Amino acid sequence: MSVVKMENVVKNYKVGKVDVPAIRGLTLSIEKGDFAAIAGPSGSGKTTMLNLFGCLDKPTGGKVFIEDHDIITLKPDQLADVRNEHIGFIFQSFNLIPVLTAFENVEFPLILLKKDGPSERRKKVLKMLADVGIAELANRLPSEMSGGQQQRVAIARALVKNPDYVLADEPTANIDTKTGHEILDLMQAMNQNLGTTFIFSTHDPKVMEHARRLIHIRDGQIESDERK
Amino acid sequence: MLLKLAFRNIFRNSRRTVLTLLALALALLFLILFDSYYSGLDLKTFETLIDYETAHLKFYPQGYKEDSDNLPIEKAFDPAPVLAVLRADPMVKSAAPRIYFRSTLSNGIYQLPVMGLALDPAQDETVFTMKQSVIQGEYLTGTEESLVLGADVAKDFNAGVGDSLTLLCRTRYSTFQALDLPVKGLIRSNDYVIDYNCAIIALGEAQKALDLGQGVTEVNVRLNDIKQIDAFKKKYASRFPGLELWTWREVAEDVIAHSEGHAMTRYITFAAIIIIALIGISNTILLAAFERTREIGMLAAMGMKRRQIVGLFVLEGTLIGIVGSAIGCLLGLLLVVFWTTRFGFDLSFAMRSWGNIGFRNLVFKGAWDPGLILLAFFFGIAVSALSSIYPALVASSMQPTEALRK
């Protein structure tokens, strides 16, 4: 069963008066439980693809379906709702809110979701922080944590609302190799334990080794799509 | 959580926030101080007018007011029937007649035009507070042949109590009259019309000298409650044939016009202060928005809607407004209570050369207006919230993909 799929997607960016294609007629389906890496050199269209999967951008042509809804028909507020309910994000530079503690950062998406009361939220946040191995750092501010610890908070934040899939744009790019592997192991464990679908971009061959599905793209087109 | 986030955000760059808070607080502080002085000016001016010149209301002969600058005495009327009716009215605290007449004061060498004022001391002091303003010598007691002068008029003649001066005037039939009168007392009322310009004699003496019989040029009324002015005016407007009734505001319309002119200056000053504060706050929030571009992108990616992002920034502006306004209003309150209402600016040295600019006080003290301080508090918050709308719109209009790339 697919959680998100693209059909014949084209995405062009306007640079001056010229249309520059970033994605050229791409068709792809991400299945539930996938742990998929999108690999390719810089400028190959990885980030554009993630943006389209993340409903952060709309395609110039073609269709993107999330739960059978074509996102091209949705208004900005509806897209925000889709992102809020269905998608978790992990960013290269963590992007935690610097004035909130680890606990509060992880709690934030649940507050936006408005589904749980304070005690339910607290329970979920503490469990998630424990799951990613930083329960004892709950009251620390991002500035008081290492890069690896911050990325763990970001993973907890992405997973706490139990999204259909998590998008991670080069999640290990800003941390050292050892910590990077730990983060990927953690993502893998979450994928296996919670069944959450992960889609992450990378150009690091060592990171690609962790993926169970490896999608190579070049010049905005799929070069290969392999499952391990 | 949004409130917590907004509150912590405003202290992210604490130096900048402190400067912004200071800008808003100082703007409100100046606004409160200016207003205190302006209100003090008006309040004191109106008080002085009522206490020395206009009372609450005045009966003038028909057509007198239009010509009142010339102090005509030809239309003098007998006040007895009017006073009898007024003194029987429970609305009326007191009533007293006066005569204003044109005159010239001379010491045999110099002459100066002055405003002659004739009054019955016993009746007059029930309406006006002239007697309390005597700073040298004594006030008139009855019908004695003597003169009480504004302190600055006496200074002009280098005259003191006991010196004799000549008051030159014309009778109602335009014949000249000269009265040699000793100076009995000097008055410092802080009403420059009195202090710089007035020679006071007893009513009976003036009536004899001006050939007015029992005539006076006005009857002044002080009510028990100033709020009953309109009711009184309605009741007595056409009660006495040949007389017109004017409220103190109508009598002092030039002063009121000045006050309204000052009010315009006041609004312009306020507007300038507020615009400066508005730009300052707007700039702070705009800088904060630009600094947090990527964070805004992340919030949007997490599913925060545009209006929620606008709300967050407006909330930050509002919080700055609450803190800045509280500081400004508190400082303003302390300064008004302990400074402006206690210590005034003594401008008596300049008042004579400024002439009639509508003020009736020489020492400008502030007034205490708690309503204004409360208004300034909410105004500060509103200005702050308003000035954050533009930066909030700028922040929320960023495309998440673009914002995340920054």
**Strand-residue proportion of chain B:** 15-25%
Structural domains of chain A: how many: 1
**So, the CATH homologous superfamily of chain A?**
P-loop containing nucleotide triphosphate hydrolases
Which sequence of strands runs across the widest sheet of chain B?
2-3-8-5-7-6
Globally, the shape of chain A reads globular
Strand order within the widest beta sheet of chain A: 6-7-8-3-9-10
Mind sketching the topology for me?
The complex is a heterodimer of chains A (228) and B (406).
Chain A: E1 2-15, E2 18-31, E3 35-39, H1 46-53, E4 61-66, E5 69-70, H2 76-86, E6 87-90, H3 102-113, H4 118-131, H5 147-159, E7 165-169, H6 177-194, E8 197-202, H7 205-208, E9 213-218, E10 221-227
Parallel strand pairs in A: 3-8, 3-9, 6-7, 7-8
Antiparallel strand pairs in A: 1-2, 1-4, 4-5, 9-10
Chain B: H1 2-10, H2 14-54, E1 57-61, H3 80-87, E2 92-106, E3 111-119, H4 121-127, E4 134-137, E5 147-150, H5 151-156, E6 164-170, E7 176-187, H6 192-195, E8 198-202, H7 203-209, E9 218-223, H8 229-236, E10 243-247, H9 248-251, H10 253-291, H11 293-301, H12 306-340, E11 345-346, H13 348-354, E12 363-364, H14 370-387, H15 389-396, H16 400-405
Parallel strand pairs in B: 3-8, 5-7
Antiparallel strand pairs in B: 1-9, 1-10, 2-3, 2-6, 2-9, 4-7, 5-8, 6-7, 11-12
Helix pairs in contact in B: 1-12, 2-10, 2-12, 2-14, 10-12, 10-14, 10-15, 12-14, 12-15
